[in-house]
Amino acid sequence: MRALVAMSGGVDSSVAAALMLDQGHEVIGATLKQWEGADGSMPLHGCCTVADADDAGKAAATLGIRHYVLDYVDEFNRQVVDPFAAAYLAGRTPNPCIECNRRVRFRALLDRASQLGCEVLVTGHHARIRRDAGGFRLLTATDRAKDQSYVLHMLGQDDLARIRFPVGEMTKAEVRAEAARRGMGTAAKPDSQDLCFIARDHTSFLRERFPAIAQPGPIVDSGGAEIGRHDGAVGFTVGQRRGLHLSVGEPRYVLEVRPATATVVVGTRRDLLADGVSVSQMSWVAGAPPAGDEVEVKVRYRSDPIPAGLVAAAAGAWEVWFDTPREGAAPGQSAVLYRGDEVLGGGTIEDNLRR
Amino acid sequence: MLYLDHAATTPIRPEARAAMEPWLGEGYGNPSGIHEVSRRAKAALETARETAARLLGAAHPLDIVFTGGGTGSDNLGVAGPALAGNRRGGVATTAVEHEAVLETARFLERLGCPLAIVGVDGDGVADPAEIAAAVGPGTAVVSVMAANNETGARQPLLEIAGAVREAGAAVIHTDAVQSFVSEEVTLASTGADLITLASHKFGGPKGVGLLVAPRSIALEPVIHGGGQELGRRSGTHNVAGIVGMVAAMEATAADRERFRADVGEARRRFEAALAGSVDGFAVTAADRRLIQHSHVRFPGVSAETLLILLDGLGLAGSAGSACHSGAISVSHVLAAMGMGPGEAAGCVRFSFGWTSRPEDGDDAAAMVLEALEGLR
After folding, report:
1. What is the value of ipTM here, to two decimals?
2. DSSP of A153-167, one letter per residue?
């Protein structure tokens, strides 16, 4: 079989490529170039840097496989950067990594794989795929601490049929040991933690692109009284505590961002509590909603799933009600639904729900 | 691997390799010294300079400035006249120049040199009258390439030089990096004052080049140091590289007739086979290009994907210009010719060279057809 391996330059995708080779497949490595500065350069920090592309090339050379850097700069700008900026300007907290996976990475690479005569697309994600009578299931990684299923929830049956995650069956320590055993330079490279170069420093990125957003405005309490000032509402995230510079006794958290009036609404931890979230753009791994309404939900990447009830609202819209109230989520982030170690699907958080 | 990327670089000629050998061993001297070891290196350097001057039609050996490659020569050829005499002289050039010229011109603009960039027609060829119109009293240098690195499109250099000289007193620089391998390049044949050559494009080693620069032309150096090359390009001489480059120049000049016959036949077979089998197949600047370039378009095909498939089949070609990461971006040359991103994305450059045989054209066409088969 011929396999296209998406090589990010990290240890996981390097080892994924090695494992496919071990299984006797013909392996082609590809790294996406998604961003460039005015001088045509790739980013120097975060995910997808020029050093990462070089690392991927070196890993491929160590394995003796072909490696290409593919140009997706225009698509990434159109499909990820522009919507990212628009969402932030609307006071939301988008997740560029998920949008990139949804709109660019997997679709582009699956298309490219078929053009290059590759039966499968392989990535270094920590997640597992199982096939049974019901079709393909997406499961959390063997190494729960490194599980990346959250950013993969948008994959459907046609995708999973053609994707492999070889390192999802291994712990991170095993992956690193395997890389070291093979003398790969990526063995000791730190994790990228799915931190997109845009998200890493989004405030300065957005200010550079949209100088108008650095508009100072009021910080108000839930009653509307001004209790402080900020120097630009964009970049505040619901649930955020730091960076408010308020001199009030009890800690305050961002409850809402209103870009139209450059207003940031804050409140106590109790004010932040929500009973659920409304979700749009829902996609189901199985192709259809699950039977039964009992699910677990993750409303941010690095948190544990919590028990919740799933309710179909208007067409295409869903509500996810937490069994017990918890801190509200940031609109624009993803709500991902699980049952045990299985990913059911997920969508974009529109709003917090309160009974 | 069938290598059709000779415009990127070409295999080193055996004559060059043999000529270099002594200067990588016992002939290690720095030519700028007073002792026997230096004298031997100096003699080799000056013999190479004489040969280069003769081949390029320069009046005196010292009219040859050895540099670190085509990019270094272009930097000196453009910035040298523009900044000479502590001036901020104007620069006029075309939109399809190599980045070594365009980026130097933009750098000079940031330093205060007025910049005029002249457009080209659909073949990538500039109009001599338009270039002359861009020359004013403040124009210090006009830089127009002899032929384009991507498409092979040749510029009407003699007409351009004539028109420029009527319009003003600007120094004329030409980047002839792509041309020398297949065409005679001299001061007389180009009409230029300054000529850039890069060794590795015609079978010499990488990292060495030259600028033909008559001593009467004032050049501000861009590399400052110990004053080698009459102060126009400082730095200890790359003796082996220079000797190898000039040996490759001689071998190239002696081999041009055979080169043109073999390469011309290989390209003819290649393009004829594709034209007969591929819908919408188009050749760029078909009647106005160097004999070794075959810049072709496959409508609706991603050049990137096609090149990867060809790499897998064992055929080396290229597209656009590769950056540090190796990704292919849409070329400024094709944009200047009026091609949209969609059209440009289907363009691939195959370039033949001194190791190409006529039957390579047949083999390459067969591989392209096989790859296209897989894409449809």
Report:
1. 0.81
2. TT--HHHHTTEE-GG
